[in-house]
Design goal:
single chain; 154 residues; elongated; 5 helices; 0% strand; mainly alpha; 84% helix
């Protein structure tokens, strides 16, 4: 029994490692591809506004997908910066720390709107999906600006 658990655990670890490698490879492609991905994400976020209350489950799924993609981008960016921490200027470190906190606060607001989407009534649907789209776009744009600013400081 223990051996079976060990085998399953190792398979999970290997699978997770392979998935992480694929994610890193896909995010670290050229900036043109990154710009295309950003455009696609913004278009998808805007499309949430087109979902009716009857399509709520699909909209919630799309919102979760958007949040997961942005979370992955942010995590990889943080990992990249933390790997270069010793080489960063003090002002870059301070900007990073401040920006990271601001992004966390914005991400928290997106999560609140997401939870509201899942629980909203048909009457509140338009307001809630607009709130999610607005907060998501603010987070995405803020991350893009932060990423450009801190990458240019290095």
């Amino acid at each position: 029994m223990k051996r079976e658990h060990s085998v399953i655990l190792w398979k999970c670890i290997i699978g997770s490692t392979a998935l992480l490698a694929l994610l890193i490879a896909s995010v670290s492609q050229s900036s043109t591809t990154g710009d295309n991905a950003k455009k696609e994400v913004k278009e998808a976020a805007a499309a949430i506004g087109d979902y009716t209350s009857e399509q709520k489950d699909a909209a919630v799924d799309k919102a979760k997908e958007l949040m997961d993609k942005l979370d992955t981008r942010m995590e990889l960016w943080e990992t990249k910066l933390e790997g270069k921490w010793q080489d960063l200027k003090q002002t870059s470190k301070e900007n990073y720390t401040q920006s990271k906190q601001e992004l966390k606060e914005r991400r928290s607001k997106v999560s609140q709107w997401y939870e509201n989407m899942k629980d909203s009534s048909a009457d509140a649907w338009d307001n809630v999906k607009q709130g999610f789209s607005n907060s998501y776009n603010e987070l995405s744009e803020s991350f893009d600006e932060t990423e450009k600013k801190l990458d240019s400081e290095q």
